Amino acid sequence: MSTHADPQGIVVGYDGSPEARRAVEWAAAEAGRTGSRLQIVTTYEIAWPGAYYAAIAEQVDAARQAAESILADITAEMRERSTTVDVFGVCAPSSAAAALLGLGDAGARMLVVGNRGAGGLANLLLGSVSQQVATHAKVPVAVVRGRSDPSFGPVVVGVDGSVSGDHALGFAFEAAQARGRALVAVRAYAPGIGDDSHERAGLEESLATWSAKFPDVPVAKLVAAGRPAEVLVDASRTATLVVVGSRGHGGFSGLLLGSVGQQLMHHADCPVLIVH
Predict the structure, then answer these.
(1) Beta bridge partners of 186
(2) pLDDT tens, 101-143?
(3) For strand 110-114 and strand 141-144, is the pairing parallel, antiparallel, or unpaired?
(4) pTM
(5) How many domains does the chain have?
(6) Which of 14, 26, 47, 88 is the most buried (most CB within 10 A)?
């Protein structure tokens, strides 16, 4: 597999499962909106000890051929459906997480995974490949789950004033503009610790620079007393995308994978973008 990645490219894992197909379709639409190339990655890996002996060479070859077949089919379909997008496929003899993370390290714009999978990307579900990629990637990771219709609802972003949260805000504004959707900026705080007026002032401060850069994006502000994950999961029910930073502080205390980000990956009703 090539270790070179287009800095404007979107990389998506595919294993032939319905969930992975939805991830590829979402990634193709995102590539079309952003003018990015689309790289579809299918992997194959023989995991039992005898895999490294010549006696099972034909099994390895069969696994490779099966992976190449499903990759060729989805690549051809996406080229036909997404005529404005440069689509190409890569079949890699490695684990799914290693292949995707390697392309992220090489400079991809975004990695996209489904919320579960099978086959070439074995165990592509939360707690396995999706979890590994979302936790360890150095680039933004989209986990496609729930509704994936870009014409439904606003883009929702968690705001806490952290550096990571500011990166998430930038991606959220870009996503809202590309989709022609409004942006809902959410700041949550623990009852008894924060207060509405103080948190609202912090939210306004975080938004000021980005609102000036994206004056055509309508912005709604939501300040809520409650647990950040619960507030964002609730907001996801009417959203097209939820964007969060990979870690945070303040109103979104402990915004880490395994905390707010992980809960969103398990419970959000729409795709989740985790910005590293």
Answers:
(1) 158, 222
(2) 999 999 899 999 998 655 444 433 344 888 889 988 999 999 9
(3) parallel
(4) 0.87
(5) 2
(6) 14
